[in-house]
């Protein structure tokens, strides 16, 4: 199987260039890859007008850079993101990404940049040439969704929560500025957010052939567009950022909603949980205990500050601050969470 790779440079700064993989649906021979290359590049550049194309070549799967995937259950694989804030060093590769194999392939979160999505695509292609039919986005945050366009080009349908399109629309412009500052313009080259092809408002099952996924759009918690994915055959629950470990949880939805989601253990109880960030094999009670403790403290201390008549800016200097042990990126994320919690709880 061959893949089209083009060197693309930022039109605004031609010194910033990277090789981008341009997948197409199905599998290509070397001859077919070469024959379609010029038209494919022109169509892709039309959608990425900030880039200028350079040389291109057709490469076999084995020559592509790829992410490491760990098999955590039969036919269930995870790429463990680095559980830390986005940096130039990690290039946005901080979220856990899932792959489920059946007669076709599903991806659960395609990663935090186009480059990461391409390397996930290459990792899957090293294992199987079956069609990648579904990409499920667990929520709107860029470290989870920015790789989606790669898989859409490969023919996958992108699926998300009913509220996902409006969430992406609301933040897209701000992310396009802030994320390259955090991860570097090179890491984000060619990256753009795309809306899902299809959204869901009620639980539904996806049959991949030999693998079944149950998708559940959740009430507002981490964000207003959280969606969990349960792999029935292995009882693996992909929670997205409804569960964090290691990286400080970020509150971008509803603190009370998140706490009530955590209160109710999933049914059936999963054999393993893949959180959005942190170790991929965890048991429900012990795995969610640190998150529950942090969010409970955030809620309790915010309520106390409101009752004491504190201003939000004062509350943000100390609410949650005694919870920092074991969390990366704590000071900055916690301060934002304290403000979000105050805004939510002051009206209750
Ligand atoms: Zn998130």
User: Quick check: average pLDDT?
Assistant: 97
In this entry the ligands are:
zinc ion
Overall tally of domains: 2
Total strand segments: 15
Your description of this structure?
There is one protein chain. This protein has helices spanning 30-47, 114-127, 142-145, 148-153, 164-183, 255-263, 284-307, 312-318, 330-345, and strands at 2-10, 13-22, 51-60, 70-73, 76-79, 97-101, 105-108, 132-136, 157-161, 198-200, 204-207, 212-217, 227-231, 236-244, 272-277. A hairpin with a 3-residue loop joins strand 6 and strand 7 (105-108). By secondary structure, it is α/β, with parallel strands linked by helices. The protein contains nine helices and 15 strands. The N and C termini lie far apart (58 Å). It has two domains: 2-63; 70-242 and 268-281, Metallo-beta-lactamase domain (Metallo-beta-lactamase, Chain A), CATH 3.60.15. The chain is globular and about 70 Å long. Strands 4-5-6-7-8-9-10 form a seven-stranded mixed sheet. Helix 6 packs antiparallel against helix 7, helix 7 (284-307) packs across helix 9 (330-345) and helix 8 packs across helix 9. The chain binds zinc ion. The site of zinc ion has 5 residues, from loops.
């Amino acid at each position: 199987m061959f893949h089209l790779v083009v060197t693309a440079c930022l039109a605004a700064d031609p010194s910033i260039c990277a090789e981008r993989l341009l997948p197409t649906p199905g599998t290509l021979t070397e001859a077919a890859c070469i024959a379609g290359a010029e038209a494919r590049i022109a169509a892709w550049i039309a959608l990425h007008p900030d880039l200028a194309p350079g040389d291109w070549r057709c490469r076999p799967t084995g020559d592509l850079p790829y992410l490491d995937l760990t098999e955590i259950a039969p036919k269930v694989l995870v790429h463990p993101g680095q559980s830390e804030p986005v940096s130039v060093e990690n290039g946005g590769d901080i979220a856990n990404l899932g792959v489920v194999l059946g007669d076709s392939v599903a991806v659960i979160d395609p990663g935090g940049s186009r480059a990461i999505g391409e390397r996930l695509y290459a990792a899957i292609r090293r294992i199987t040439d079956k069609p990648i039919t579904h990409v499920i986005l667990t929520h709107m945050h860029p470290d989870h969704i920015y790789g989606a366009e790669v898989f859409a080009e490969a023919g996958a349908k992108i699926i998300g929560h009913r509220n996902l399109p409006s969430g992406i629309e609301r933040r897209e412009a701000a992310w396009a500025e802030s994320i390259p500052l955090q991860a570097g313009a090179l890491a984000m080259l060619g990256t753009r957010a795309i809306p899902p092809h299809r959204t869901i408002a009620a639980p539904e099952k996806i049959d991949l052939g030999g693998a079944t996924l149950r998708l559940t759009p959740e009430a507002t918690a981490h964000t207003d567009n959280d969606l969990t994915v349960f792999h029935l055959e292995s009882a693996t629950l992909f929670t997205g950022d409804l569960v964090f470990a290691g990286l400080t949880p970020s509150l971008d939805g509803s603190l009370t909603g998140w706490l009530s989601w955590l209160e109710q253990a999933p049914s059936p109880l999963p054999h393993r949980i893949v959180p959005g960030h942190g170790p991929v094999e965890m048991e429900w009670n012990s795995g969610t205990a640190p998150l529950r403790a942090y969010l409970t403290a955030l809620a309790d201390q915010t309520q106390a500050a409101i009752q004491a008549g504190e201003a939000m800016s004062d509350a943000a200097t100390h609410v949650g601050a005694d919870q920092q042990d074991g969390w990366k990126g704590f000071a900055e994320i916690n301060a934002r969470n304290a403000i979000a919690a105050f805004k939510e709880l002051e009206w209750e």
